[in-house]
């Protein structure tokens, strides 16, 4: 692992400034990235919002439109960026990303190799994990995707931590200049087994590799290739179930099959409570329930550790 300079710290302004990128939060399923410009406005169903009213406010502020509607101004964290970025390819989401960063033991000062870059969802989280003294080198064979990724990394101000290159890793392998220097390697390729021999050369002794594949047949063939130079080979499928938490008013006197109001009244009478049951039945209640649209299978994560040859 690269040495960490304790005198260097990640600088982050908690105040919105002209030229900053902010995440405009309308509701949990409607967010967008907006670059703040003194003379610009944002128009949506809640009204017209002047950017000049945003400047100088702390991230997380609630700002109002000319009609009294409101939005929240959030900082462009990797988690939020994953939800608003342009999808040039299928992306990894928070559940897989957090598992990858943890299992590859990516910490400040690490040197990480990634292929392919795609939409840059994972790359943003890798950059934050290696900051302030590490670096992420990411490659994609598609030149236009590389150009778009560079622009995104400039917007989100992680370009000093990420270098993007055009390269066919399956056909050419990683650049020889990284031989024996990488702490970890991440592969998101249709044929990862073609890149595994090159990845093994790039890793430090006991370095870790992760390969993301949507199909189990890809996993099987990759594992066949990993066995010769890697150990501790494991494959995971991460499934995430999210819940909606809302405050609602429930009329317990009307239910499907079971009259909740009747049950409560019987309990109250047995316990000798007063006659304020009806008021309590219509009071606000906080409910948690599974989201109606749950994401299922995204892909398989195969991890392996380079064998230490004596």
TrEMBL record:
<feature type="binding site">
    <location>
        <begin position="119"/>
        <end position="122"/>
    </location>
    <ligand>
        <name>S-adenosyl-L-methionine</name>
    </ligand>
</feature>
<feature type="binding site">
    <location>
        <position position="168"/>
    </location>
    <ligand>
        <name>S-adenosyl-L-methionine</name>
    </ligand>
</feature>
<comment type="similarity">
    <text>Belongs to the class I-like SAM-binding methyltransferase superfamily. TRM61 family.</text>
</comment>
<feature type="domain" description="tRNA (adenine(58)-N(1))-methyltransferase catalytic subunit TRM61 C-terminal">
    <location>
        <begin position="69"/>
        <end position="305"/>
    </location>
</feature>
<keyword id="KW-0539">Nucleus</keyword>
<keyword id="KW-0808">Transferase</keyword>
<dbReference type="GO" id="GO:0160107">
    <property type="term" value="F:tRNA (adenine(58)-N1)-methyltransferase activity"/>
</dbReference>
<dbReference type="GO" id="GO:0031515">
    <property type="term" value="C:tRNA (m1A) methyltransferase complex"/>
</dbReference>
<dbReference type="InterPro" id="IPR014816">
    <property type="entry name" value="tRNA_MeTrfase_Gcd14"/>
</dbReference>
<dbReference type="GO" id="GO:0005634">
    <property type="term" value="C:nucleus"/>
</dbReference>
<dbReference type="GO" id="GO:0030488">
    <property type="term" value="P:tRNA methylation"/>
</dbReference>
<dbReference type="InterPro" id="IPR049470">
    <property type="entry name" value="TRM61_C"/>
</dbReference>
<keyword id="KW-0819">tRNA processing</keyword>
<dbReference type="InterPro" id="IPR029063">
    <property type="entry name" value="SAM-dependent_MTases_sf"/>
</dbReference>
<protein>
    <recommendedName>
        <fullName>tRNA (adenine(58)-N(1))-methyltransferase</fullName>
        <ecNumber>2.1.1.220</ecNumber>
    </recommendedName>
</protein>
<feature type="binding site">
    <location>
        <position position="188"/>
    </location>
    <ligand>
        <name>S-adenosyl-L-methionine</name>
    </ligand>
</feature>
<keyword id="KW-0489">Methyltransferase</keyword>
<dbReference type="Pfam" id="PF08704">
    <property type="entry name" value="GCD14"/>
</dbReference>
<feature type="binding site">
    <location>
        <position position="140"/>
    </location>
    <ligand>
        <name>S-adenosyl-L-methionine</name>
    </ligand>
</feature>
<keyword id="KW-0949">S-adenosyl-L-methionine</keyword>
């Amino acid at each position: 692992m690269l040495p960490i300079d304790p005198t260097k710290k990640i600088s982050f302004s908690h105040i919105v400034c002209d030229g900053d990128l902010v995440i405009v939060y309308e509701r949990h399923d409607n967010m967008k990235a907006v670059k703040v410009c003194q003379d610009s406005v944002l128009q949506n169903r809640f009204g017209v919002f002047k950017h000049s009213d945003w400047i100088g406010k702390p991230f997380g502020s609630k700002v109002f439109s000319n009609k009294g509607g409101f939005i929240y101004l959030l900082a462009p964290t990797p988690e939020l960026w994953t939800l608003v970025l342009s999808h040039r390819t299928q992306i990894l989401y928070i559940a897989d990303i957090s598992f990858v960063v943890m299992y590859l033991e990516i910490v400040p000062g690490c040197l990480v190799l990634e292929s392919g870059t795609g939409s840059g969802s994972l790359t943003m989280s890798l950059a934050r994990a290696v900051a302030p003294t590490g670096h992420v080198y990411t490659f994609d064979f598609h030149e236009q995707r590389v150009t778009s990724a560079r622009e995104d990394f400039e917007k989100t101000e992680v370009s000093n931590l990420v270098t993007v290159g055009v390269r066919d890793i399956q056909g050419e392998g990683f650049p020889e200049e990284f031989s024996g220097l990488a702490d970890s390697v991440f592969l998101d390729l249709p044929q990862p087994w073609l890149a595994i021999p090159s990845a093994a050369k790039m890793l430090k002794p006991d370095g870790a590799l992760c390969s993301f594949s949507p199909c189990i047949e890809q996993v099987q063939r990759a594992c066949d290739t990993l066995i010769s130079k890697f150990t501790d080979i494991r494959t995971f499928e991460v499934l995430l179930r999210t819940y909606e938490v809302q405050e609602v008013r429930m009329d317990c006197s009307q239910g499907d099959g079971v009259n909740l109001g009747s049950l409560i009244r019987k309990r109250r009478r047995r316990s000798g409570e007063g006659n304020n049951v009806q008021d309590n039945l219509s009071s606000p209640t906080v409910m948690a329930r599974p989201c109606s649209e749950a994401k299922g299978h995204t892909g398989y994560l195969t991890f392996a550790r380079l064998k230490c040859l004596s």
